[in-house]
Amino acid sequence: MKKVIVPIGPYHPLLEEPEYFALYCDGELVVDVEWMAGYNHRGIEKISESKHWDQVTFLIERICGICSTSHPIAYCNAVEDLAKVEIPERAKYIRSIVGELERIHSHLLWVGLAGHFLGYNTVFMWAWKYREPILDIMEMVTGNRNHYAMMKVGGVRRDIEDADIPIIRKILEQLKPKLEMLTGAVLDDPVLAARLKGVGVLTAQDIKEYGALGPVARASGVDIDVRRDSPHAAYGLVEWKVITCKEGDVFAKAVVRLLECFESIKIIEQCLDNLKGKKGEISIDVRNIPPGEGIGHYEAPRGECFHYVRSDGTSRPLRHKIRAPSFMNIPTFKASCIGETVADVTIILAGVDPCYCCTERSAVAYDVSTRKKILDGSDLIKLSHEKTGKIRKQFGIKDK
Amino acid sequence: MEIIKIFAMVAGSFVLFGILGIMSGWVDRKVTARIQWRVGPPWWQNFADFIKLTGKETVVPEGANQFLFLVSPVAGIISATVTGAVLLSSTFFNPFKWDLIIIIYLLMIPSVAMVIAGASSGNVLASIGAGRELRLFLSYELPFILALLVPVIKFGTAQVSEIVRFQQIYRINVGYLSGVIAFVIALLAFMGKIGYVPFDVPEAETELAAGTFVEYSGLPLALFKLMKWILLSVGISFFVIYFLGGFANPITGALKYLFVLVLIILIKNTNPRLRTDQVLRFFWGWLTILGLFAILLVLLGY
What we know:
Number of helices of chain A: 16
Strand content of chain B: under 5%
Number of strands of chain A: 10
Largest interface: A-B, 33 and 30 residues
Distance between the termini of chain B: 46 Å
Shape of chain A: flat
Low-confidence stretches of chain A: none
CATH topology of chain A: Cytochrome-c3 Hydrogenase, chain B
Order of helices and strands of chain A: EEEHHHHHEEHHHHHHEEEHHHHEEH
Order of helices and strands of chain B: HHHHHHHHHHH
Strand content of chain A: 5-15%
CATH architecture of chain A: Orthogonal Bundle
Oligomer: heterodimer
Number of helices of chain B: 11
Radius of gyration of chain B: 19 Å
Radius of gyration of chain A: 22 Å
Number of domains of chain B: 1
Mean pLDDT of chain B: 86
Helix content of chain B: over 70%
Number of strands of chain B: 0
Largest sheet of chain B: none
Structural class of chain B: mainly alpha
């Protein structure tokens, strides 16, 4: 059978980021999928090793523009785990508020994009319009619409003033009916249901085999959520529930994400109640990071975000390992895309809410025709050493 | 003399339906924008787009069949224009028998041109788009013809001017049950013809990048865009003439035109794109059954 490669990427309207999916097609049927990453590799882990413990939070916010507070929270958790410090209660609530606001905006962003990918641009515009007040709250609370710079090792950088709380509550209150309307419009639309139900089904077995995380896993009936399973920030202190669905198709993923927005609003409101009228420290001084290892999780909008740091007692991390949720979610394409048509594969690819710039920690160059590795990590290091040697020679710097 | 008259008619059709189509395209963009809480472009935006595109470089890809690649937009725009000319001629100037059949034929050619355009591009995405266009074309044509048959059976003539006259004497085609059904079917099939959501499978921006038009640039792309605009205005004018009683009174005629246009825009903006197999099932299943039902109704006199 002659297979045709349908390229999705490196530059394609489906992808907000440069990424390459080769769909091996027989007619319109996709028989195999290949994912080639590496266009977004920026060497964040390496840069992180050259920054001060406090500077790293600003750096890793730039990993991703959408979950730009998930990475700092996970990193702070890791460092606090390493330094064995407990952050003040007020900081916990503020962390949860910022994290949950981000979850709402990320999920709404996904709903909009999914609509756009289905050619339903009205949903795209409406969802993004409803996302706007969340960004306004963010600007009010943190000073920025994105890249909030709110987290720091040992607490948070800015307090939420008592005067701001009623305004935040009012905006959230106004958002609720809009969100309900959007949820109804998406979940009750017969054409959307025809397009999404039974498409790209991932069974609980698939989820376990691929180690998929977050809403993708919860949509398949796998009840995992780091916020509940290993409580941090204020998640152990407020009432909320984990949303799960059984079907595992793209529709279930939309259901999970939309309903999670309501849970997030619930969490934020309880956190605000606990902040109101109280005074307290928002951070503690962490002067020394002792040698050792630390692990931090955070349930980012896309799933569990994992950070590992190792310290040798100096002012910089010796090793900083980042694993974003998309790294686990993207390979599930192999299970969900094969046997579907091109039209469905595009929405399945978008259905896991992939974030490529989060994911890419290394790059390997292949020869397209022979599929042989041209360069891998050690080769790149060798090349860079050679180049450095040349430069040193050129400027007459002698090796010590 | 005769030939000059024909040329004048075609040129008139080109100018009239071209401008009307570009303005309809603007109404589409503006209403869509207002639905989506955007501002939308100024009224001359589509003219500017068209003029700018004509000045851009025309790139013919290496693997393409150069002749077919360049001829298909021309063929498409000529057939769309000639459809308009036939429509003008048969309603206002020079009615002739069986012009409905000719209009149906001419309305098919732009779709064929798009299939050829996609197939000759030498691009995987374009050829998938061409395959989809072909399937779409096969699926909407049957209910479209069934729907157009309803007034023919009602009035016993396949001459557009006669049908308009009967509508003015008797009642307009959407004034009775089978006519309403036929109008809805024909409208949906027409949306497939001009490739509007939910039937924009051949161009599916986020799947195929632009499908059949992925390799087009410059003047050929401008011609294709103009072809779509002309097809839009010709098609809506045809609906007004064929189902809604024609343009006898210019003011109500314009209102009818706007009504059909806004109806199409609303359907376009409240639906996601269907899959190719769903489109096929929709047209051959639901709409064909509905079309047969409408024919049964009209034979019974409803």
